[in-house]
UniProtKB/TrEMBL annotation:
(3S)-3-hydroxy-3-methylglutaryl-CoA binds at residues 143, 242, 275. The active site is at 79 (proton donor/acceptor), 111 (acyl-thioester intermediate), 233 (proton donor/acceptor). Keywords: Acyltransferase, Transferase. Residues 404-414 have a biased composition (Polar residues). Its EC number is 2.3.3.10. The keyword Iron does not apply. It comes from Labedella phragmitis. The lineage of its organism: Bacteria, Bacillati, Actinomycetota, Actinomycetes, Micrococcales. This is Hydroxymethylglutaryl-CoA synthase. Residues 244-324 form the Hydroxymethylglutaryl-coenzyme A synthase C-terminal domain. CDD domains: init_cond_enzymes. GO terms for molecular function: hydroxymethylglutaryl-CoA synthase activity.
Amino acid sequence: MQLGIENISFATSEYVLPLATLAEATGVEVGKFHVGIGQELMSVPAADEDIVTMAATAAQPVLEGQDLSAIRTVLFATESGIDQSKAAGVYVHHLLGLDSRCRVIELKQACYSATAALQMAVALVARRPEQKVLVIASDVARYDRDSSGEPTQGAGAVAMLVSANPAVLAIEPVSGLHTADVMDFWRPNYRSTALVDGKYSVSVYMEALRAAWDDYREQGGHELASFDRFCYHQPFTRLAVKAHRTLAKHSGELSNDAADAQIANTLDYNRQIGNTYTASVYIGLLSLLENAADDLSGARVGFFSYGSGSVAELFAGVVQPGYREMLRTSRHREQIQRRREIDHSTYVRLHDHPEGLVGGDHDIAPETTGPFRLAAIRDHKRIYETVAQVSAPADASAVGASPAVSTDTATTAL
Ligand code: HMG
């Protein structure tokens, strides 16, 4: 029996900050961002967006035409939790009208937990192949302003329907695993921004990659040369390039050029969105499937999922014949291109005063043009609403934003 991803979609935020704007405002040579870390733009949520609105937006198209009663589990992976007790997925379950005969839970282990969710989903479906599991990964990457991590922020969500009809990607059973108690990146409960030991985080990421690879091979996994493509967790795209060259050297099987070819097209979307924590490696998968010119049917794709703290997993999947019919390439490119460019002062406002973190009762003015929004906080309860789809608000200046990023610019950037 084949098990894996039947359908997959992503969403990102309303706004976008070009890293050139950040570079100018912070006095950094822009080449450091564009070349040194390999990032061009970063998604910034509007005040009425959060992990729930992005998750519902990502999952909505995946559910179209589905028998919702078959979805008896929703696994919501995030490290940008909005409540210490209630799972964010319960709000999404309501917004999307899922069946009440369903279990919904939230999973956390930094950027890794979406992979844990995917593997748990596969195990659940193996037991009851007539059922499906909705896996959602949604995050807002936030660091202090003027910190080393600032240019590696971003926001986005991925939704994957896991079933015994893996029309997009069949997941293979072998995994390489690695857990190590390290303090490379963390966010105590009293902080809205993450703390990071940047250089150390890169070195433990590489250590985890080598260890997970060794375990993968010991568990009976394939040689590196037998992979067609490879997707990495991408806090910034340059790291994926360095990581795959590190793995090529470690395995002794591939040249740098061959390694670079294996990750081609997996970086395109992440370069435009930024770090999306749990969603990042699966946005990398969509970037590959939607931007590779060649037909990837039958291709073996490797995945390296890393979550600081740290847990890592390396596994493989095989792209299924006919996968292209399952893709939403135009919709996803539009998700990236429709974002409205903000100036530095608007970014500062949104960064320093995320609405949902304020305790008192208040309504939140409409900003997002997406289908779901956080409308208010009342009695410490988050009030979400489904909104009719509109194009960008007529008076974008009301929120300090410029008109939508021009299609030309975004197309060139992609
Ligand atoms: P930094 O220290 O500010 O940057 O931050 P740098 O000085 O090391 O420069 C970066 C690169 O740009 C260097 O290249 C420079 O030479 C180059 P490298 O030596 O690395 O090849 N550079 C230039 N290139 C072209 N033109 C120029 C120029 N100037 C410099 N003008 C750091 C780098 C990664 C530390 C920072 O971005 C950071 O702290 N990021 C956040 C942490 C992070 O992303 N870590 C990744 C591993 S941990 C992980 O993936 C988990 C995570 O997603 C969280 C989770 O699991 O939940 C973060």
